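Continuing from the previous page of notes. For each protein in this section, the sequence appears first, followed by its structure tokens. Read the first protein now.
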Amino acid sequence: MELYLNFLLWIFGTLCSLGPSQVSPKQLSGLYTGPYFSRYTAGNVTIRAGDVAHLPCRVHQVRNYTVSWIRNRDSAILAIDGDTIVNDRRITIIKTERRGDWVLSVTNVTSRDDGSYECQVSMQKKMSQFVFLKVLLPTVSIDGPPEVFTKSGSRVQLLCHVANRRQSVPIIWKKDGVEVKDSSDVKMEIFDRGGNTTARLTMTNVNQSRFGVYICQTAGLPTVNMTLHVIDAKEQGLRTNAADKRL
């Protein structure tokens, strides 16, 4: 198979080096000269909301054929041969004929842009290549169950994650609606990794005053919460005795 492909490439290179008058119909017989898609074009593009998406389409030997981009969600024709058709200023075509690139560019992507797009070559028999755009929306979440039980005097860590933001944003923890501040036994830490931010709240030597609803809050996203229950030694002993009696 590899030898056969090398042979075809050698024939193609030889013909390209000849002038038009030197190439006879007999020499072109059996050699495909029509458009074809590059095998190295990505089929999936994943990007965060608000960023710029570049959907690749590389077509070789286009010649006089037309290359179009179509959005499958509503069958809208977005662009034809580098000219934007749809009334959306965010959409443009980055065209590089030398390399055969017809890249669909979408700025400030939103969840509505999520879906399948078709790069189409208009021939007698239509040729198509599909690219799926996945738009990642910002999310906020708290590790663990919605209710946490801990012993009095223990150490507790609460983790809140904000993912897929274009840039780092402030995150605060609140207890019963009041912002939690650093103190001798409370520490708030922020860890940022390329649009993903974690707020870690560490409390040591917890007591009944730490019981309550803890809310994680950041701008532009819904709040999430969990409840911390603190069981003191006396209550723990009563529960243990009750369990022993049942046995």
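Done with the first. The second protein uses the same format. Note its length before scrolling.
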Amino acid sequence: MSLADITADLKALVAEKNCGPILIRLSWHDAGVYSTGSLTGGCPNAAMRFTDAGEGTFGANAGLPDVAVGLLKPIAEKYITPGVITNADLWVLAANVATEAMGGPAIPTRFGRSDAADSSGSVESQAGRLPDADKGIDHLRAIFHPKGFSDKDIVVLSGAHTVGKCNANRSGFDGAWTEAPLKFDNSYFTEMLAKEYVDETTAQGCPQKKHGASGTIMLISDLALLEAPFREHVELYAKDQEAFFKDYVSAWVKLQENGCEGLREAL
């Protein structure tokens, strides 16, 4: 077993299933529960493997324990080895491989995370830890600042919405953010600035914004980034994809390593 072997299998999975976006979401929601505010604790520990309680049952994680974890199951069974690579490490690596495979930046991966032994390794709730799509700037800051992220980091991490789509059966929201949802680039920012969006309510009753001609959407939390001081970063990343990639790697690695200790560079 080598890192090259695991990476090759992950690349093949992404190519076969076009599942890059959900692998990124899996890593984000595993790591994103970390907080140092009024809520503390949380770390990337693959607690979503368990669906009797905890993070595997959070509404915000709908589709992840079954679809995303299911896609990775054959690779996990092949490679997970205590002391070498854990499920939590694999989820991080899968997201990073998927990002690059879809045209995004190369992201360094370190290893040594611990897996939750059961659902009790989960945080208590998604509330106050994972962002709500129908809220604005104050909410975004309340979620991200206790994780150690700045306003610029909020914008750059939101840029992951350049890939993937909302699934009405999971989140209640419906549609892709960009016209090329399997290409990791700066289209999230360019389209946000170039398009006009109108209010729409999904069949599930969720408010969102829609661009009529293309059918792409933005969430309330997305368009909140057009307000000052967030907008200057949106405009920068729309003009300069290299700057977006550089800042994204920095913030994304921090997200994936929050709450972790003793990580190592190699398997």
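What the second structure shows: The beta strands are 35-36, 40-41, 165-166, 175-176, 198-201, 207-210, 217-218. Residues 195 and 248 are 23 Å apart (CA to CA). We return to this in next week's lecture.
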